[in-house]
Here is the input.
Amino acid sequence: MLFEFGVFEIGIKDVVDILLVGIMLYWAFRLLKRSGAVNLFWGILMILVIWFLVSFVFDLELTGAIFNYIISIGAIALVVIFQEELRNLIYRFGSQFTSRKFRRARTDAAEEEMRRCITTACLHMSRSKTGALIVIQGANNLREFEDTGEYINATVSARLIENIFFKNTPLHDGAVIIADHKIVAASCILPVSKDTDIPSHFGLRHRAALGITEKTDATAIVVSEETGKISVAKGSTLKEVSIDQLFKDAV
Here is the structure.
């Protein structure tokens, strides 16, 4: 089936082609926006538009050849510059298939006990306005972030979590990482999100919670030191929740 628009003929294959390019541009925009380089996206898009006009519309051979060279070199340069972001994007695509299997493999009793302890600790820390950042591992291994903190390898308990985040204790700064129903490490350093859409009232803990969920399929729970409010970060989104909603929005 073909549709004629003046001198142009557009078929179903062309519509699909345009949609695929649109989806790729959308994902590229999201990727660069999280990296704090959204202006780079618009610059690249402008170069692509000029290249298309020069090479395919006006058919300027010399100028088109120069732009072809720029595009080929630029593509390699972008892969080098954004290799970490591209790796994380591909990693997250793969994790969509493994994370469900991982969740089903968890022991129900241990899972329920872990949730109860985290909920109790968050409730108490929320009331006392004790800042906290708890990361629950998904299918993706968090070893590189665990290595930045102090290894604990202890059973999850509400009192232990509260004690770790108690003000002025050695381990209260940074994140607690929980994996396989154990507190693996505390005082861990997480990557900070560069997303410009994060509300200004969210602090460093919230940005770190978003950062870890942008790079992995982990879930992060934040207790605000200023307001005592609880937030959950998952799948690169962050929202405030009540204590009753905590694990409805978490894992």
